[in-house]
From TrEMBL:
<dbReference type="GO" id="GO:0016324">
    <property type="term" value="C:apical plasma membrane"/>
</dbReference>
<feature type="transmembrane region" description="Helical">
    <location>
        <begin position="197"/>
        <end position="219"/>
    </location>
</feature>
<feature type="transmembrane region" description="Helical">
    <location>
        <begin position="28"/>
        <end position="46"/>
    </location>
</feature>
<feature type="compositionally biased region" description="Basic and acidic residues">
    <location>
        <begin position="630"/>
        <end position="646"/>
    </location>
</feature>
<keyword id="KW-0812">Transmembrane</keyword>
<feature type="transmembrane region" description="Helical">
    <location>
        <begin position="118"/>
        <end position="139"/>
    </location>
</feature>
<comment type="similarity">
    <text>Belongs to the major facilitator superfamily. Proton-dependent oligopeptide transporter (POT/PTR) (TC 2.A.17) family.</text>
</comment>
<keyword id="KW-1133">Transmembrane helix</keyword>
<dbReference type="InterPro" id="IPR018456">
    <property type="entry name" value="PTR2_symporter_CS"/>
</dbReference>
<feature type="transmembrane region" description="Helical">
    <location>
        <begin position="352"/>
        <end position="372"/>
    </location>
</feature>
<feature type="region of interest" description="Disordered">
    <location>
        <begin position="619"/>
        <end position="653"/>
    </location>
</feature>
<feature type="transmembrane region" description="Helical">
    <location>
        <begin position="584"/>
        <end position="608"/>
    </location>
</feature>
<keyword id="KW-0813">Transport</keyword>
<feature type="transmembrane region" description="Helical">
    <location>
        <begin position="552"/>
        <end position="572"/>
    </location>
</feature>
<dbReference type="GO" id="GO:0015031">
    <property type="term" value="P:protein transport"/>
</dbReference>
<feature type="transmembrane region" description="Helical">
    <location>
        <begin position="159"/>
        <end position="185"/>
    </location>
</feature>
<dbReference type="Pfam" id="PF00854">
    <property type="entry name" value="PTR2"/>
</dbReference>
Length: 653
């Protein structure tokens, strides 16, 4: 048996350092670019909101689909090392192209600060995005699997830690870039005219991608590299096709049953290949329910968006997830999991993933509870069979209003009555009602004619000052505004004589009384779920894959995320339940149901050691002792060459 003793530090192969730094830089590059992409579409290319978000989602979807391509190239053709290098070059070219497309001066011949040839900028940025999607998705399954390849069999504990550190690097990179690139965009730069600095916001991620590639190449001499054994994916497809055909050819009950349907390929295909396909299919089957987790996970940013707790600032919430990941991964790894082990409980990977799903479901239950609290603070909106009428009394005494046939309202002088009745007509409520006898000018608003109203105007939360003017006369007043509130100001004819004192404030909608801190449990729960589910899934996909299909199984794992995202888009298209909290509960219940199904599937799953199974099949095939000896000798020679080439120490035990 051959064991590589690569250069080590604290029990870890040194080559791992280059891989995790590479991942950090790559994720910085990817998330940094994504953080300013919609802004670039909206304010540089001047696209409308719909087009900008559609192209953004199409780009993200493409990034999720390309891992399959990268995995096939790596496992069937180039090997992981070369695939990472070539696709990283494509990726870096894409980022540079994208950064160049944001330089407005290139086509700004008339020097007015806006590009003259939008087609050029659009074409260049679309080319950049396609290259980026190809690169980022393509290398994704290869980098994690290549990192795993650096460990030897006795380093299983270190291998698990590696995947946790790998996940930390993903989130550290994304956190920093999500904070930094929007700040870079806010700077001003340009040759002829100073504009928002998109070239810097996209240029820095491009530089980080180049650094990521350089770091990866720098570690080249230290990596354990395995070459693909021929076009494995093609062999897999042919073998599966033959098994299905052969099974149908022998469907009569006179033929004895075989243990597994893949055994119908025994007549033509190598037993080892069949065993490897069985391992992969078993895991892929287990993955079928998993997209539901990602469906909930990918909606979590929307939770705060819909609830409006942060006044709709989902961008900032993007940083909460990586911050929590950076805190929770070490806590789980160093404290919670060892503690559970000490208690004598077997918290196997599939159990962890099930618990992770339950945590995500709890996050949605928590979101539903918060939503119910928010709903309590909202006014009663008219239903589809009702409309709302608002009557403002600017007359000097109380008025009796009758709405035919028999509905009555009593409105005090300078009072407002909001009235909901079936099948009446609706009026639009207002922000300022001018009861003064002449036109009025109010800060930041158009002038209002007598007895007229303004539209609702959005103002920032906190204390705001208003100045009212008519010719030489003026007065000012201040009011404090709460998030989500809505007010109407009634201006009487005496407004200037009493220095704005007589302005009446009517609260149409109460401010949010639900504290934004209530969102923290949701984020905490979903991120705890992510750590248990996603980090474990990454480790599991590597450990259960046969040696020659490690990238393919990583791509299969990433596919669960892609399908989850597609479900999010379908759900968004299909429409929503009338009550937001009911929708959250529906998703939570679906995930609980899915986790029950998954736990049953997991119960019947037997953990394997692919290397052991492969050795056993070889033995059964009669490769031992002579042929295995021969294979071992061939490997020894190959390793000796590698050792001479890369300075890798090799020992035979
Ligand atoms: C499919 C995931 C393993 C993708 C992973 N995302 C994360 O780690 C998130 N916590 C990052 C956050 C910024 C959404 C990735 O590789 O980016």
């Amino acid at each position: 048996m051959l064991v590589y003793l690569t250069a080590e530090c604290c029990g870890y192969p040194i080559s791992i350092f280059f891989i995790v730094v590479n991942e950090f830089c790559e994720r910085f590059s990817y998330y940094g670019m994504r953080a300013v992409l919609v802004l670039y579409f909206r304010y540089f290319l001047l696209w409308d909101d719909d087009l900008a978000t559609s192209i953004y989602h199409a780009f993200v979807a493409l990034c999720y689909l390309t891992p399959i391509l990268g995995a096939i190239i790596a496992d069937s053709w180039l090997g992981k090392f070369k695939t990472i290098i070539y696709l990283s070059i494509v990726y870096a070219i894409g980022q540079v192209t994208m950064a160049i497309s944001t330089i407005h001066d290139i086509t700004d011949a008339n020097r007015d600060g806006t590009p003259d040839n939008f087609t050029f900028h659009i074409a260049l940025s679309m080319l950049g995005l396609i290259l980026i999607a190809l690169g980022t998705g393509g290398i994704k399954p290869c980098v994690a699997a290549f990192g795993g390849d650096q460990f030897q069999e006795h380093q299983s504990r270190q291998l698990n830690t590696f995947f946790s550190v790998f996940y930390l690097c993903i989130n550290a990179g994304s956190l920093l870039s999500t904070l930094i690139t929007p700040v870079l965009r806010a700077q001003e730069c340009g040759i002829h005219t100073q504009q928002q600095c998109y070239p810097l916001a996209f240029g820095v991620p491009a530089v980080l991608m180049v650094i990521s590639l350089v770091v990866f190449i720098a570690g080249s001499g230290m990596y354990v590299k395995t070459d693909p054994e021929g076009n494995i994916m093609w062999s897999v497809c042919k073998c599966i096709g033959f098994a299905i055909k052969n099974r149908f050819r022998h469907r009569s009950s006179s033929y004895p049953k075989r243990e597994h349907w893949m055994d119908w390929a025994n007549e033509k295909y190598d037993k080892l290949l069949i065993a490897q396909i069985k391992m992969v299919l078993k895991v892929l089957f287990l993955y079928i329910p998993l997209p539901m987790f990602w469906t909930l996970f990918d909606q979590k940013v929307s939770i705060c968006h819909f609830s409006g707790l942060l006044g709709g600032l989902p961008d900032q919430m993007q940083t909460v997830n990586p911050i929590l990941i950076l805190t929770l991964v070490p806590i789980m790894d160093r404290l919670i999991f060892p503690l559970i082990q000490k208690c004598g409980l077997n918290f196997s990977p599939l159990k962890r993933m099930t618990v992770g799903m339950l945590f995500a479901a709890m996050a949605f239950v928590s979101a539903a509870l918060v939503q119910i609290e928010i709903d309590k603070t909202l006014p009663n909106f008219p239903s589809s069979s009702e409309s709302q009428l608002k009557v403002v009394n600017t007359y000097s005494t109380t008025l009796n209003v009758t709405i035919s046939p028999n509905e009555h309202l009593l409105i005090e002088s300078f009072g407002v009555q909001l009235h909901t009745s079936k099948h009446t007509y609706s009026t639009i409520s207002c922000m300022f009602v001018n009861g003064y006898t002449a036109d009025l000018n109010i800060t930041n608003l158009d002038s209002i004619e007598p007895s007229a109203t303004t539209n609702y105007t959005l103002v920032n939360q906190g204390k705001r000052d208003f100045v009212l003017r008519h010719g030489e006369q003026w007065c000012e007043f201040s009011r404090k505004f709460g998030f989500g509130a809505s007010y109407t100001f009634l201006i009487p004819s005496t407004v200037f004589s009493d220095d704005c004192e007589s302005i009446t404030e009517v609260e149409d909608m109460k401010p949010n009384s639900v504290h934004m801190a209530l969102q923290i449990p949701q984020y905490f729960l979903i991120t705890t779920g992510e750590v248990m589910f996603s980090v474990t899934g990454l480790q599991f996909s590597y450990s259960q894959a046969p040696k020659n299909m490690k990238s393919v199984l990583q791509a299969g794992w990433l596919c669960t995320n892609a399908v989850g995202n597609i479900i999010v888009l379908i759900v968004a298209e299909l429409g929503k339940l009338p009550k937001q909290w009911a929708e959250y509960l529906l998703f939570a219940s679906l995930l609980v149901a899915v986790s029950i199904i998954f736990s049953i599937m997991a119960y019947f799953y037997t953990y394997i050691d692919p290397a052991e199974i492969e050795a056993q099949v070889r033995k059964e095939q009669g490769l031992e002792p002579e042929e295995m000896e021969k294979e071992t000798l061939e490997m020894e020679e190959k390793d000796e060459d590698q050792k001479n080439e890369q300075g890798v120490k090799q020992t035979k035990i």
